[in-house]
Amino acid sequence: MKNRKPKDEQNRGKTNGPDSIKMKSKNKKRLGGGGLSLEAFANAKSKGDFYNPALIKKQKEFYKNAKYVKKYKKLLKQQSEPHDISSAIRSLEDENETEDRSMMSKNNKNRKNHSIPSLKQMYEKKHEKQEKERIEMEAVIQAKKEEREKAEARRKAVRDKMFRKTRAGQPVMKYRIEHLLETIQNSAKN
């Protein structure tokens, strides 16, 4: 209240004094200083220097997919090369029908068949391997199942003996003592 200036009708209308300049500069600071030029505004908007994890993830995924596509195309090219060689051999046979060349091309075809396993052979080998693995797994599972059933039958027999009662409703001590004796002997063996 001490710094308060007296309300004067004449001072209200004036805006050219030193107080009005201070007010304008305070308003500028409050509003963020002077405005941006059009060029500065456009450049500020177009810059992409900010950190955007979603954009980075998208770019990584794009490059990863591009790598897979490149590998796929390379594999296709490698698989198509033998076919190109065989077509070149066929065109040579058509041009020159001499016996020597036809014999050489047959030898080349035989070598090709022996050096590169066919897809059917590869499939059969893979299928046989999977079948062997499946049979082994079934054998292991069957052995575990039999072992579990034996253990369950043994526990059931012990349980029946342990729960036997006399006519008066008392437990039969014979089986309980036998069980204790067996456990003591087993622990002594180990």
UniProtKB/TrEMBL annotation:
Basic and acidic residues compositional bias, start-end: 1-12, 122-163
Coiled-coil features, chain-numbered ranges: none
Domain of life: Eukaryota
One GO location term (cellular component): nucleus
UniProt xrefs under Pfam families: rRNA_processing (PF08524)
InterPro entries registered for this protein in UniProt: Fyv7/TAP26
UniProt region (Disordered), positions on chain: 1-34, 77-165
Protein name: rRNA-processing protein FYV7
Native species: Fagus sylvatica
Lineage start: Eukaryota, Viridiplantae, Streptophyta, Embryophyta, Tracheophyta
